[in-house]
């Protein structure tokens, strides 16, 4: 009886909300209507299909070329969205007024449902407490201690790939192997246990499967995550257990798959936390022998004051957050770099030459020695500049504000303005890719992949733009208090893998055309099978 009433009530409330939203947005004018931008491509979805298309960075480039660095877009039912790549505006969004331009509600609600109260789903003091507790985990000193693990896992991968090429070149899915290695590195470094051993074994831990399938499945639920879920949570239409019953009865297979993924990730994370807590209680929290991230976090948390200490739920939430973020983005970036090296064999040869020269002296270069490889560094920086694993981030204005601009823009009525009025709750899209390849910042060759640009001083325009990114004058890892906390970990992991693999192996493109879905976290795929990411490459023993 209760279930049937709720199944009638929830759709009725959603329908009423949609009708009011549509009327309000179509009848009344909006302050952002004076900002130039493209017409809505759909009455229902506005420009969202273009924004979240597999080739979305190409769309962002076209917007920048036609409308400049500030554009008005349309979302669901003519919702106005501000699309911003202006450097001065970004300084205010990510640094000077980041308390105004917070993560969007749909981002926070979605990540709360998937991971729990972790770094990706919290704001304000709660987020600052978590970040403060996690900073020691990602210190440079700790990165140095992790290097042997990076090498050990990567050499395991190298041995397997060399065995495959014993009788000549072979085609293999490098995304699968890179993901497996990245997961094993983060599970050993992060949790102190092996979850994804780099072997030929076809079997896979359910937790690993859940993390791998999270991104492709979530792409198919984007509108639900962005519009329906925040509404349901905001107005508390039903208790979580009842909402789960309703969602399980809806004829939406992807939603059911996502529920299974979340259940698996949560259950395994709780088990890992419980086991780690037991281990630390047995040896004592003062014992510093266990160097994995989770042990360090739990020791620091035990020593913290009551005001800074994280709850058990907060610590559990960091586990899957760490595993997902460290695996998906790193394997995406590495896949792109190997693909680029296959497309540009001359760069691959030059990089291999640098690696082999260093390898004559150091079999496993330490943190500082690896950082000194200038061409390896240039290849990584240029790849992360032009092909950010995450091409778009969103912020939401928590109150009315004015966003200053580097250069004035002309409004639809012909007036020139130096700042944009941003009403409360406005969604702001920041196209990372458009910032990273802006010709006004990077010069006329900004759309070209040229590692050599990093071997000489960058143009003055790059430094003058004062891009608020935490890494190399680009927005790939964003900036401010929500910058990627593990970007140094990811950078060194990529460099170790490239150092070890390129010394022994040659990577070339196979016969199948590789496409890239750059909506969300960029992933390669073949044909029309976007839900099954793969990167088939022809590998052989390097001469």
Overview of the molecule:
The protein is α+β, with helices and mostly antiparallel strands. It contains 21 helices and 12 strands. It has helices at about 1-25, 50, 55-65, 85-95, 105-115, 125-135, 140-165, 175-190, 205-220, 220-235, 240-250, 255-285, 295-305, 310-345, 345-360, 365-370, 375-385, 430-435, 440, 460-465, 485-505; strands spanning about 70-75, 80-85, 100-105, 170-175, 390-395, 400-410, 415-420, 425-430, 505-510, 515, 525, 535-540. The strands form 4 sheets. A 5-stranded mixed β-sheet has the order 1-2-8-5-3, sandwiched between helices. Strand 1 and strand 2 form a beta hairpin. The longest helix is centred in the middle third of the chain and has 32 residues, at about 310-345. It is globular and about 70 Å long. The termini are far apart. The mean pLDDT is about 90.
Task: Please outline the major beta sheet.
Answer: 5 strands, mixed
Nearest-integer average pLDDT: 91
Shape: globular
Structural class: alpha+beta
Count all strands and give the number.
Answer: 12
The helix fraction, in percent, is 40-55%
Q: If strands are numbered along the chain, what order do they take across the biggest sheet?
A: 1-2-8-5-3
Q: Give the count of helical stretches.
A: 21
- Kindly estimate the percentage of residues that lie in beta strands according to DSSP: 5-15%
Integer-rounded radius of gyration:
24 Å
End-to-end separation: 72 Å
Low-pLDDT stretches are: none
